[in-house]
Amino acid sequence: MEYGVAKYVLPGQDESGDHHLVCCNRDGILIAAIDGIGHGKEAADASRAAAALLRSSANEPVISLVEQCHERLRGTRGIVISIASIDHEHGMMTWLGVGNVQGILMRSDAKKGNVRESLLLRAGVVGSQLPALQATVLPIVRGDTLFFATDGVSSDFFEALSSRENPQRAADRILDHYRNGNDDALVLVARVTGSGS
Question: Which of 47, 148, 168, 177 has the highest CB neighbour count under 10 A?
Fold first, then answer.
């Protein structure tokens, strides 16, 4: 897996409420983009707490991870999150989203069907109002590229995606061209480089 991250901190704030996680687990890699509700220290505290829990429990299924975050974050501002667990050995990705952190999977081989898969987002706030959770499982192969973007990034960013662009360059470009400037923003781009066919 190779990845790149680009962040924007809302002017006047000391830190971003948007955080990310990319870490190894028993079967592959866990990836998450986390947006603390609002901005500033309280939003950052909530998203950091979620990232720490995800890291410490990275081997759990994604639904269980989000449920654990929900319990841990009660009494905080809460977060919205999109999360993916990539199982390299079996060539599968399990992902889910609560709130408005957009997720797109760009296929490296357009001849095999859809070029772009979009994450189904469920309305809610982790730590406050958790919806019924349902993860989606997709096959993945080498070269497939995952994009996560928080709501500080315009929703039409997906119109200019490529599965061939360097992940860090892609994250920087998307942030530069599509951030709306009135909220923290984070773009995470991750490409599968091993296993799969």
Answer: 47
91: how many CB neighbours lie within 10 A of its CB? 18
pLDDT mean over 164-193: 93
State residue 193's pLDDT score.
85
The CA-atom distances, in angstroms, between 95 and each of 58, 77, 177 are 14, 23, 26
Q: 159 vs 141, which has greater pLDDT?
A: 141
**Is pLDDT at 116 greater than 50 in this prediction?**
yes
CA-CA-CA-CA torsion sign (150, 153, 182, 125): negative
Query: Which residues on adjacent β-strands are paired with residue 85?
Result: 30, 94
The domains of the chain, with CATH numbers, are: 2-191 (3.60.40.10)
Contact between residue 92 and residue 108 where contact means Cβ atoms under 8 Å apart? no
pLDDT band at 113 (very low <50, low <70, confident <90, very high): low
